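Field reference: "sequence" (input) and "structure" (output). Example, phosphoenolpyruvate carboxykinase (ATP):
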Amino acid sequence: MATIESFNRSELKKSNPLLTKFRTTVETAFYGKNMQEVTDMTEAYQLALNAAGVVVTDLPVLHAKELGLPEDAKVLVENGGRIIGRTARAKRIIGENKEEDEILQAIIMDVIYQNRLRHYYKATGYVGLDKDFIIKAHIAFPEGNENNLYSWLLNFQWESPEYREMYAHSKAYNEGDIYIYTDPDWRHPDYPLGVAIFEPDKNVACILGMQYFGEFKKGTLTLAWGTGHRNGYVACHGGQKHFRLPNGGSYVASFFGLSGSGKSTLTHSKHDNKYEVKVLHDDAFLIDLTDGSSIALEPSYFDKTQDYPADHPEQNYFVTVQNVGVTKDHEGKIVLVTEDIRNGNGRTVKSRYSTPNRVDKFEEPINAVYWIMKDDALPPLVKVDDAVLAATFGTTLATKRTTAETLKKGESTDTLVIEPFANPFRVYPLVEDYDGFKELLSHDEVDCYIINTGFFMGKKIPKEVSLGVIESVVEGTASFVPFGAAPHLSYLPVEGFNPDFEDKDYTKLVRRRMQLREDFLEEFNAAHPSMPLPDESIQALQNIIDAF
Ligand SMILES: Nc1ncnc2c1ncn2[C@@H]1O[C@H](COP(=O)(O)OP(=O)(O)O)[C@@H](O)[C@H]1O
Ligand SMILES: C=C(OP(=O)(O)O)C(=O)O
C-alpha cells in the first residue's frame, strides 16, 4: 500500500516518528462518533444538493455517470463572504515557532473538543493518479460544508473500484496517509483571517476559519507535493502539455505561474487544432528526477470562470462553482453569471472531460520550462540558456498577484512580488527546489524560457501573443536575438513588444528588476543562514546587471 494507514500494535510506541502530538490529535478526531463517513460520489452529491447554503442550478453535469454521480446531477453553486481567494499568510508550519506551536496545539485541542458534539463528515481520496505515485488523503468537514466536501472528492480522486485497484498495486512510500481536519466556521480574535496549520513531514493539517475551496485543494496539495519532494520528485505548481506536430515531432512544455497568471490558459489552449495536444494538468504535478516523466495529482481542474460566459461551451464541464452570480434565463432556468461580474476569482471544479486529450502520466521527459512572470521589463518571451541562471530565475520568479489571493495591507495587484517557483505552498527549504530545478534544467534536452503574460513597458501582452510565441518555439521557427549584452539571455522579437537597448530608461529598468531579484536572494540568505541559496545564483544575476 502506498502510504501508511495502519500499524502493527508493536509499532505504536513513542519512538514511531509518525506518532507526533499534532498528528495523533488530528487523526483521533476522525474516529469520533460525530463523524459520518461519506464513501461515494452519489452520497457526497446528495449531501451537497440538500445543503442549505447551496444554489442548485438547472445546468446538467455532463459525464455524470463516469464521475460516479446520478444521471440527473446538476451544477451546484456556493458562495463565501468577502474573502474570495486564498490567504497565504494564514499558513503556519509546526516547528517554525515553538511558542506559537504551543498556542496552536491548545487551539486545535479546544476546536476538536468543542466540535465533538457537532455533526461532521469525513471522506477519503487519492492524490496522484499513477501507480508510481498515488497516496491516500482523509479530510473532515462539519455539517454545513457539504459542498466543499463534495468539491474535494471531485477535485481529488474518490476511491472508485478502478483507483482502489491501482492503489493496492502502487509503489509504497514510508509516509503517513494525509489527514486534514477543517472547521470553516471557526473564529478567533488572534487569527481574524483563519489559520492553516501544517506538520508537513507527518502529512497532517488543520484548516480553520476559511471557506474558500482553494484552501482545501492547495492544503492537500501542500502535503502531497512535500511527500513527492521527499521521495525524488520535483514538486510543480504548474501546467504541463504535450504537442504532437504534423511532422511527427513531439514537445512537452510546462508552465509555472502564480494563481491567476495564465497556467490554465496556456496549458488548455488547443492552438486552433494545429497540433495534437495532450494535457497532463493545469495546476499540479510531479516530475520524477530519475527519468523526467511527470504524474498528475488531480483528475479535475479548479479553474477561473472569468473567460467563460453563459453561452461558452466550457460551462458544459462545470460541476461545482464558487464566487459567481446566478440568474434566470428566458425558460426560467437557473443559470450562471460569470466573467467576475459579481466579484473577482470566479471558480469552478471542472471535470477532466473538458480535456478529451487528458492523460495522467507523461512518460516523455519535459522539453521546456516556462516561468510565467509579469515583470514589465521583460518582452513576451526570453530564453535562458544556462542551468544556474534558469534555476535562479525560477527562484526569483517576479510576478503580480490576482484576486485568487487575499492581498496583504498595502499590497495591490500592481505590486511586483517574488514568489519562488510560483509556489507559496513549499514546506521544505527553498534551496532544495533550487537544486531540483537546476538538475532538471541542466539536461541538454530541457530549455528554459520566461514568458511575460502581463504588461511590457506599459503595454498589455494579449494571450494571443503569449500563445503565438509558444507556437513558434514548438514549430522550431523562433529565432532568438541577444537580450542586449546579458550573458545567457536572448529574446524572441515580437512586433510592438521589442526592447530598445539604446533607451537608457529601459536598460535602467532591466537593471533595477535584476537588482530586485538579487536583493531578494541576499535578504533570503540573511534570514536563512543555515539554508542559504548558493553564491553562484547571486553571481548569475550580478553578471546581467554588469552587462547593462
Ligand atoms: N498573455 C496572457 N496569457 C495568458 N492569460 C492571459 C494573458 N493575458 C490575460 N490573460 C488572462 O488571465 C487569466 C489567467 O487565468 P488562468 O489561466 O486561469 O491562471 P492560472 O491557471 O495560473 O490560475 C485568464 O482570464 C486569461 O484570459
Ligand atoms: C486555486 C488556486 O490556484 P490556481 O489559481 O493556481 O489554480 C489557488 O491558489 O487558490
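Residues 9-52+87-231 form a domain with the Phosphoenolpyruvate Carboxykinase; domain 1 fold (CATH 3.40.449.10).
The chain has twelve helices and 30 strands.
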